[in-house]
Write a structure and sequence with these properties.
The chain is of the alpha+beta class. It has a domain of 67 residues. Helix content is 14%, strand content 25%. 9% of the residues are buried.
């Protein structure tokens, strides 16, 4: 009597076809990967801390987490847009209150 194999059946592997040369794309073993700058999400709901100070703390945490990478963009809730020198602060309806997304703006 023959035994059935308990090894899983592997699915066929599909790869993306190469596209026109784009410096933002890197080819790795026939698969294309878009390199994006890292983002860090920071949450601070302390009502006594001003928004500008919360954004500064988020930027400091970003610099510690990603040494050598300078943040250029902070995404915040539309109600918390505060100007910060040297950083673009954008209000977005999809970002929750007290949440700060720190990262870099993509170059076009």
């Amino acid at each position: 009597m023959a035994r059935k194999s308990s090894a899983p059946v592997s699915a066929p592997v599909t790869t993306l076809a190469p596209v026109a040369a784009d410096p933002a794309l890197t080819s790795v073993s026939d698969t294309l990967i878009r390199r994006q700058p890292p983002f860090l999400m920071w949450y601070d709901d302390n009502p006594k801390t001003p928004v500008a100070q919360k954004i500064a703390a988020a930027i400091a945490a970003y610099k510690m987490r990603f040494p050598g990478v300078e943040p250029t963009l902070v995404l915040v809730n539309e109600a918390e847009v505060t100007p910060v020198e040297g950083i673009a602060v954008r209000g977005m309806v999809t970002v929750s209150r007290h949440t700060y997304w720190v990262g870099q703006a993509m170059a076009r």
